[in-house]
Amino acid sequence: MDEQNKKPIETTSKEEFYKRLEEELNKNHTWPTRYMYKFIVPNEEAKIEEVKKRFEKEYDFKQNFSRSGKYVSLTFITTEDSPESIINQYKKMEDIEGLIAI
Question: What structural domains does the chain harbor?
C-alpha cells in the first residue's frame, strides 16, 4: 500500500503503465496500424492455445522456442484501430499464469 496516496501500489503502476503506453502509441503511430504483440510463455500447448484464443482478430503468427525448450515466444501481428484496442488486448492476457508481455 502506498501510504501517501492510500492506493495499492500494483494498481497504480498498471494504470501508469497503460497511460504511458497509450501516450507512446499515439505519438508513434497513425491509426489504423499494424501492431506486433510479443509474449513469452512456458512451452505448454495449453498455454500457447490460451494466448491464441484471446485474439479475436485475424493475425500473422510466429513462435520461437528457447534454447532449453522450456519457453516459447509468441509473436502476433494484427491491424489495430486505436491505442485502446491494443491496451484492451494486453489486459485480456493479464491472468494467464506465466505469461510475460514484451
Answer: 31-101 (3.30.70.60)
